[in-house]
């Protein structure tokens, strides 16, 4: 089941941070902390790999609220979409461990913002994901220039380079499964 209560409490906590003046720029990294709960683990008593992706949602919503994107989503009647992702796992997260989740923008092109998210326990990386994300209006992805303009960041450029550019190219070459 989706963690709606955690999601709502993450939004409330991020809004409180904004009220206290603890906002973020698009160039900064969001960090939130939580404990691995019994509802997060699998039969091996570690965080389920699918749950990792679900909990990454919490990091992206904290980032959106604290950067002002959340306010623009409501004002402009925009939505968010994930259009691609890749993840690596390095260390298990066990029940009740304290997790730090980090979220940052690592590249922007004309259509997509590329987000890097990672989970850490005791200062050690446990997983890292790259996500191709977009802002939508009426079910269609809008140009990132409109999003950046709404956030007062029209002049910010962060073109994909290195491993991000390689992932974009590799992902574009990936064939879709055959129909039928």
From TrEMBL:
Keyword 4Fe-4S annotated: no
Keywords assigned by UniProt, alphabetized: Hydrolase
Coiled-coil residues: none
Documented EC number(s): 3.1.2.-
The organism's place on the tree of life at top rank: Bacteria
Enzyme class, UniProt record, top EC level: hydrolase
Record SUPFAM superfamilies: Thioesterase/thiol ester dehydrase-isomerase (SSF54637)
Leader sequence segment: none
GO terms, molecular function: hydrolase activity
PANTHER family: PROTEIN THEM6, PTHR12475
Name of the protein in its database record: Acyl-CoA thioesterase
